Structures are given as structure tokens and as C-alpha cells.
Amino acid sequence: MTSSGPAHSPLPHLHHHHHHILLRIGxxxxxxxxxxxxxxxxxFWIGEEVIQVSASHQHFxxxxxxxxxxxxxxxxxxxxxxxxxxxxxxxLKKEKGIHRMEAMLYALDQINSxxxxxxxxxxxxxxxxxxxxxxxxxxxxxxxxxxxxQKDTSDIRCSNGEPPIIRKPERVVGVIGASASxxxxxxxxxxxxxxxxxxxxxxxxxxxxxxxxxxxxxxxxPPDSYQAQTMLDIVKALGWNYVSTLASEGNYGExxxxxxxxxxxxxxxxxxAQSVKIPREPTDGEFDKIIRRLMETSNARxxxxxxxxxxxxxxxxxxxxxxxxxxxxxxxxxxxxAKSSPITELEDVAEGAVTILQKRASIDxxxxxxxxxxxxxxxxxxxxxxxxxxxxxCKLTRPGxxxxxxxxxxxxxxxxxxxxxxxxxxxxxFVIDAVYAVAHALHSMHQDxxxxxxGVCGNMDPVEGRSLLNYxxxxxxxxxxxxxxxxxxNGDAPGRYDIFQFQMTNHSHPGYRVIGQWTNNLxxxxxxxxxxxxxxxxxESICSFPCRPGERKKMVKGVPCCWHCELCxxxxxxxxxxxxxxxxxxxxxxxxxxACRPTxxxxxxxxxxxxxxxxxLAMLGILATSAVVITFIRFNDTPIVRASGRxxxxxxxxxxxxxxxxxxxxxxxxxxxxxxFRRLLLGLGMAITYxxxxxxxxxxxxxxxxxxxxxxxxxxxxxxxxxxxxxxLISVQVLGVFVWFAVIPPHxxxxxEELRPxxxxxARGILKCDMSDLSIICCLSxxxxxxxxxxxxxxxxxxxxxxxxxxxxxxxxxxxxxxVWLAFVPIFFGTAQSTEKMFIQTGTxxxxxxxxxxxxxxxxxxxxxxxxxxHPEQNVQKRKRSFKAVVQAARLSQKxxxxxxxxxxxxxxxxxx
Length: 913
Description:
Shape: rod-shaped
CATH superfamily of the domain at 609-873: Rhodopsin 7-helix transmembrane proteins
Family: Belongs to the G-protein coupled receptor 3 family.
Keywords: Cell membrane, Disulfide bond, G-protein coupled receptor, Glycoprotein, Membrane, Receptor, Signal, Transducer, Transmembrane, Transmembrane helix
Membrane topology: Multi-pass membrane protein
Transmembrane segments: 610-636, 648-668, 722-743, 774-795, 807-829, 849-871
Radius of gyration: 57 Å
Oligomer: single chain
Region (Disordered): 891-913
């Protein structure tokens, strides 16, 4: 008895019930620990129970194509789409299914007719439909391994007692496929158990590069990690550093995005704003939610998209509904490529999209082959009739099937490309290259193992899978498009991509334009790119705009592409892109705060109001003082001049002159000499003036105090004594200044702190002498002591009759001077925080000194000059009075004071004293 199942049945259907089939898995080195459940299921499926067949002998007939040959290759193609509502298969896929599958048949025909490749050896095939579903493809691929499962048939006997005749299934040495990465992964796991090499023409998932898990898997297309590298290079070339990713749920989309994210992390410089996944079965409004989520990081205009055609279209539609045409800048993977279907009627939203596609070529020989196919000459393709109906939109008549009245009847005379549109599917080249790769590997193996043999020799029967894998990995030949076909150590083909951009303007019709290439490195022509509205400037997709000069980056934690810009304020400048540094004390930042520049140095200028006013007052004072001195010299022997005490008057006038002179030294440009004279003369003029006044008031006070007690005149009232006392008082000031010279030699300094306002543009360094506010006060302090002492004596001498010397004028002088200096102190110290401190303090000091000198000059000498010049008749000698008269006047003054009499005692003073 023989099995009635067809030769291409995946499993022999036996009629004896409840007999166990013993299994032996051939050459299963290193069985994977990942698939014990699969093996267990396979064991129970085949071995635990004999497959029961019903009385009607219904057998399992897989939809497959069997091409006889000496060596058989497997083929996995998505002839049909995924079926709806739990059905395994759906509608026919003309391009991705039929075109690719026919490319394998075409390649087999070419190889079998080529005397240079596998001469005298015919390649056959077993081609299966995966229905675009990984689980269904796994069931189908069991066909490839059944020949490796050796079955024990010793317990099986026919009714006549003879052993059964079971046709041995063909042995598949290698598999071409699959298309989808998820299908290839599922199939690769079982093929590796049986050491059957697999060469894919379209699976690009990066995880298939793992040579430990998928060691028998190779592919003639580059993995998506190369796509991801290409897309990253494009993003960097466009100057983007902040992009979002969008992936269709599934192996292709998720693996592609994962590869992009990993490569971008390793390379640095590009951050992922959002990583959004599109569900396998998106609900209503799902794509609108995706667009809203992408807009949460609206600066990330660049969107890296690994998605199928339907999802791409839905994303574009949602962007259009959200009125975001032109906002998103898509960078699409090869699933978008140069296809028109995802962007039809959505061209405005897709404008500017950059897409990549494996470098490919149209195979002219395949076009001629495929367009010559007909129902008569292509009976080996069991799905061709279905394709014919779909392609020509007609219906073939079959026995027992009623013709659909809505469809015309197929005549069989239709021709592909003439009565229907035809364009070669993009992966045809890679299908042909995959078949040729296995053929070249078998050819090399035959030359090594069967030298001189014209057919398959014993060394190649059976073909050892691991050996064949090594030969496949070693091939290097020019493929159908003229480019080399080779594999790296992981079984991956080199990456070769064309880069397209969808453009609408400046062309006769919108379309994809090649703008660059990628073969291990990027070559992108930015000048040929244009974006929404025909704009040729590259739009930005960055998290944070570059900081302006003078601003530092404050990084956002965890997002190296995002930062806040902070101005280097105050006196800081931008040291580097992350740091602000304070300028040295003698410098200030340049206007754009990228460096420091020297702070301008200023001094009190002669044309400044702060200098003009004091200088004018001082000049008037010097002229007035000079006039008094000249007048006194001219009328040196007149009674008024003699009565005023000529010697002390000249000393006092010298002091007044020096007080006026110090104004010019305070205004002059600081230098060593100027600073030395400032120290010397600042207090010297006042010391001379008030020393002379103190000597005068003290003399008057002592004379009248002595006169109250006795008729003996006090000591040291002669002019010589007065001069000596005065010079002794002056010498204290001079000695102090020279000690100061010895301790700290005079020098200039530049004060950068005094004029350092919040706005550095207004900062100035002030050239000044090394005299602090404290040192100025110390320099004047001795003069102030003399002034206060003189004032005390003036108060004590207030009762002296006015005819005796200058007691009252000196008193008025000192009162006024004290008022001037009391006003000086709060002004001087109250302006310490002012931006014009130096000018105000210098002006206040010089004006105060000029005013005090003017008070002394005006009250003590102007009345005398006035009498000398305008009333010479009063400048006559009066009768002399002795010290006795002074004593009498003092006693009368004392008596008058005690009796509190009104009026004044008229006693002529002795003006010759």
C-alpha cells in the first residue's frame, strides 16, 4: 500500500491508526534552546499519533510550486496579503508577491541555461506562499525540513504483507526568502535547526545581523542599521539635532527606529524628542493623537519614519487635518522610498520629504520575460491565473463556478504591459541576486567537492548545509544590476542607497528627485534640495536655538541637545559656550561679551564743570590775594599796614595764596611731582593761615588777660616772637608730611572700583594720587585743630574793644570758616557712593578751601585795602598809647562787662604794637 498523498505533500499521510512514528533529526548540531516548545509541538504533531486520515482520504495540499531539478531551492514569497478575521490568507499581492516570485523562476531559468554556472546540474525549486504572516509561514516552511526527518516505518505493513512504498520528499538545500523581517525571523529559527542556509531578498531588520542567533541567515539587501546610519547622516548634514521617530508596530518599524536611536546615542549630537509607535490595528483617531503628541515638541520638526505605506499615508492625512502642512520634515525609510501610493493627493504635506531606497536597477531581461508570460506558457505558476484575473480585471471560467456578471470574461489573449499597467517591482533585482548567490556558492562547492564530475557527485549528495553556508558567505560576483554581491561576517550585504526628495515646485510635474547617495558615507547635494513652498533654505529642527554671543548654555538635564541661554551679565564675559567668567578688575566686557577690553582711564579734565568752577574761584582768589600783597608792599610803612602786624600778615597772606593754589594741584593730572605737592600743600596753606591767626588771637587774648591782672606786659608779644611761634606751629604740619613721604613715597594709582557701575559700558578707571579719603582728612586734621583753637581764642577775645587789632574780624572769620567746613564734611563723605564721587569730592574740597581762604582774605584785609586805596585820609598816625593804656582799657572793659552797661568804651589802641 502506498500513500495517496501528492508528491509535494509536506507530510506523508498514513492509514494505519495509533502507530508511533520514530523521529530522528539529522545533523542537528547545537539545537537552539529557544525552540524547545516548537520541537515538542513538531514531535507530537508528527510522532505521537499517526496522522489520521478520514475515510474520504482528504489530504493536506499546500499551495506551492514544484520545479524539478537535481538540487532543490526553497522559496518564500508573500503571494497573498494577511487574511482578515483569522483567515490565513487575503488578497493577491501582484508586485511584492507575483513579481518577486517570478523573478526567482526567471533566475532559475537563466542559471539552468547558463553553461558557466552549474553545468549539467539543474536547479529546482519548492516555492511557498507566506501570506504575509509569520505563523503561517512557519507552518509552510516545515515542507523544507520534512526530508531531514527520518521516519521508522518498520511497523507499517500493507494488507498484502509487503512494506509500504513511501515517496521520499525532495531535499531543499537552501531557501530564498522571506520578504518581511518578522517572517524571516520566524523561519530562520527552524531552518537553523536543520542547518539549511537562508538568503533573503527583502528582510532588513537589524536583529537578523546577530550571527549567534541567526547564523544560517544571509541577505542581499543591507540591514536597516545601514538605513538608520544613512538617516542619521542626513539629519546631521541638514544641521538638525532634535527629531522625533515614528514606527509601525512590528519588527521592521521598531527595529529600524531602535537602530536609529542606538546609533544616534553612540554618535552623539542628535536627540530624540518623541518616539511614537503606530499600533498594528490603529483605532479611529489614533493618527490624530500621534500628530498631537508630535506637536508636544513642536521644535522637533524632523520626523524619522519607519512605517508601512498605509501608515505613512494615514500620518500625512492626519497632519493635513491638523492644518500642519509644511510643518513636519519627514525622513522616510525604504518602505517609503520613491513610492507614489503613500502620497497621492497628499503631495503638499509630503513636499520636502527625504526618503532613502536601496540602490537598485530595473532588470530589462526580467521585463521581457514577465511581459511574455501568458496562461499557456506559465502553467508552472499555480497563482498565475489569479494574477491574470486581478491584473486584467476579468474572470476566468472554471467548471462549476458561475461568471460574475460585473466582470468581463478573460480571453487569454491579454498581454501584460499592453492591456494592463506594468512597472517592475523594486526588489526583483535582489531576488535574482539571492538565487544567483546560492547558485554561485553551489558552483564553487561543486568545483571543490566534485572536480571533473559533470553532475552531482557523492560528496554533494546530500549537500551539507554548514559547508554551503560557508560558500554562500564567500561569494563575490557582479549581480543583475552590475553591482557586486557579497556578504560580511554577519551575512549582510553592503549598504548602497539612493537618497530622494519629493519636490513639487520648479518642475514640470511633482516627483521624487535624487539628491544624494550613501555607500558607507553620505554624499548629499544640499543645493538641489527644496522644501515646502519651494524654499531652498534648510528649515531647522533643533531643540534650542544657538545662544547669541555673550550668552552661555545652561543644559537641560538628561537632554544634551536642549539648553537655556543665559546672558553673561554685569562684568562677566563668555569664556566658552558653557561658562561665564568675570573680567579682571582693570577690564570690562566687550559689547557682545565674548572677551574683555581694558577699562578706559579718566582724570579730572580742565574743561569739566567740576574743574572750571573751583579753578575760577581759585584764580579770583589768587588775583585778590596778589592785589592785597601788592597793596601792602606799596603801602608797607603806612599806619594801617604797620598796625595790622606786617610780618604775620605776609605769612597769613602766603597761607591764603597757597590755599588757592592747591586747587590747581588737585585738578592737575596726577603724577609723582603733582602728588608730592598735593600732600605738601593741601594742609600747609591752611596750617600757615590758621597758625598765623592763632598766634594773633592768642597774643590779643594774653595781652588783655595780663592787663586785667597787672601792668607787666606778657611774654612773646613782639613781632619776632610771633613769627617764631607761627613757624613752630607750621613746622608740625611740614614734619608730618615728610614722615608720610618717608613711609609711603608719593605715587599715582588707578582706581577701578570707584567708577564701576552696574552697566560695564559706563565703567572707568580713575587716575589719581594715592591719597584716600582718610589720608586727606588726616592731612587737614592739624589745620582743623588750629582752626578750632583759633576759634576758641576768638570767642574768648570777643570782649576786646574793636579798636584793638583784629580780634573781632578774626572771630567772624573763624565762625564763618567753621560753618564752611561743617558743610564740607557731609558733602564730602555723603557722596562716597556716587558714580562721580571723585569729581564731587575734589570740587567740594577745593571750593571749601577757596571759600575759607576768601573769608579770611575778605574779612581781615579787604577793609584795610579799601581804606588804603579809597580813604587815604584815614591812614594816618594816631597818638601812641603805652601798655598802660591797654591795661586801662582792659580794666574798663572788665568793669563795663560786670555792670552790664550798654555802649562801648572808646579807647584808642596803640597801633604801633
